[in-house]
């Protein structure tokens, strides 16, 4: 089925290798550099690793007029949302230049503007006790362009239901940018693969006569709930972008 993600053994292995902090993975480094150059105002990016594959430095060349702190925050969010990688902001250095030809700047701006429209960024996750006993409220915040959406799900306080609640809240936030299409979570679970825990989600995209299954995965790093959010985004980002409301 075109236009959707399918799980292949190579893709699962690639995502598990995406933790640049712990696993030597030159392909992951190049993917990170390519991702960073799609961010607004970023002209070039270089990720420097140690011989063991740990990130030691990230060097960014950005256009003049941008706030370096905002550039750093965008970089942290993009790496976390797309690759599941958390990088210490102190490892990111930003240099700025105004030496850009006008036509090149316009072309780069147009390309990056389109790229940013495709990006749904992970904004935050909160799990708090509910007023009802043995239940919790899972809140997920996503940013899409200049729009921020937060959705809540109340679930039983068990590991499995907390993961499912995070996935459902993410689906609801993504649905808010569409009018004629819907997303339905069909399943979210933690699986063990090659001595690692991975969250696997299956989401159904529905609109008119269209009904497709979308799958996504994310390695558990901070916690399983956060991995569930990233897995839903992995499954749906392209599908949602093609059907979102401007």
Describe the protein.
The chain has 246 residues and is of the alpha+beta class. The chain has two domains: 13-117, 2-Layer Sandwich (GMP Synthetase, Chain A, domain 3); 119-243, Double Stranded RNA Binding Domain (2-Layer Sandwich), CATH 3.30.160.270. 36% of the residues lie in helices and 35% in strands. It has helices at 9-16, 26-36, 68-83, 102-117, 159-175, 224-243, and strands spanning 42-49, 55-63, 92-97, 120-129, 135-144, 147-156, 182-193, 196-207, 210-219. Strand 7 (182-193) and strand 8 form a beta hairpin. The longest helix is centred in the last third of the chain and has 20 residues, at 224-243. The model is unreliable at 1-27 (pLDDT under 50).
Question: What would you say about this model in short?
Answer:
The protein has 6 helices and 9 strands, in the order H-H-E-E-H-E-H-E-E-E-H-E-E-E-H. The protein is α+β, with helices and mostly antiparallel strands. Strands 1-2-3 form a 3-stranded mixed beta sheet.
Question: Which features does this protein show?
Answer:
about 250 residues, alpha+beta, GMP Synthetase, Chain A, domain 3, Double Stranded RNA Binding Domain, three-stranded mixed β-sheet, three-stranded antiparallel β-sheet, 6 helices, about 35% helix, globular, disordered N terminus
Strand order of the largest sheet: 1-2-3
Shape: globular
Number of domains: 2
Q: What is the name of the CATH superfamily of the largest domain? A: Alpha-isopropylmalate synthase LeuA, regulatory domain
**Tell me, what is the CATH class of the largest domain?**
Alpha Beta
Binned strand content: 35-45%
Give the CATH topology of the largest domain. Double Stranded RNA Binding Domain
Largest sheet: 3 strands, mixed
What string, H for helix and E for strand, traces the elements in order? HHEEHEHEEEHEEEH
Rg estimate, integer Å: 19 Å
Average pLDDT, all residues = 78
Helix content: 25-40%
Task: Kindly state the number of beta strands.
Answer: 9
The CATH architecture of the largest domain would be 2-Layer Sandwich
From the N-terminal CA to the C-terminal CA, the straight-line distance is 26 Å
> Number of helical segments?
6
Class based on secondary structure composition and strand pairing: alpha+beta
Q: Uncertain regions: pLDDT < 50 for 5+ in a row?
A: 1-27
